[in-house]
Amino acid sequence: MRKENVFSFDSSIFELTLVFATGGVAYYSLEILWRGYSHYSMALLGGLCFLTLYLLGRTFPSIPLLLYCILGSIIISAAELGMGEILNNKLGMDIWDYSNIPLNFRGQVCLLFSFLWSLLCLPINKLSKLMRTKIFGYEK
Length: 140
Description:
The protein has about 140 residues and is an all-alpha fold. The protein has one domain. The chain contains four helices and two strands; from the N terminus they run H-H-H-E-E-H. Helix 2 packs antiparallel against helix 3.
């Protein structure tokens, strides 16, 4: 349920855009800190994943944290696989390659990073809740 909106206009487009941009900037920055470089497509992928997880939490505000993290890992890994198949395997952009990591699939996803995505869902969940309640006026 939503309290009175903190903005005086219909903010649904604004909400989705801000959430997408936040995820894109956050993931792009995180990847630069982790690897020392990134690619603009990672901002798009990060924005898409953060928006999806934000909407998951908005739709199911009482979802158990463990389930949220498991679903988040699946969502992020599936998005990574889809983007990897297009960008890396079809277009040959070689943005990332997990081929040298055990338990990988076609070098695009691997069990280790799927686990790391589940851990990343902890701060994602917290930030999503803060945005929903403090910026966009949702109850939970």
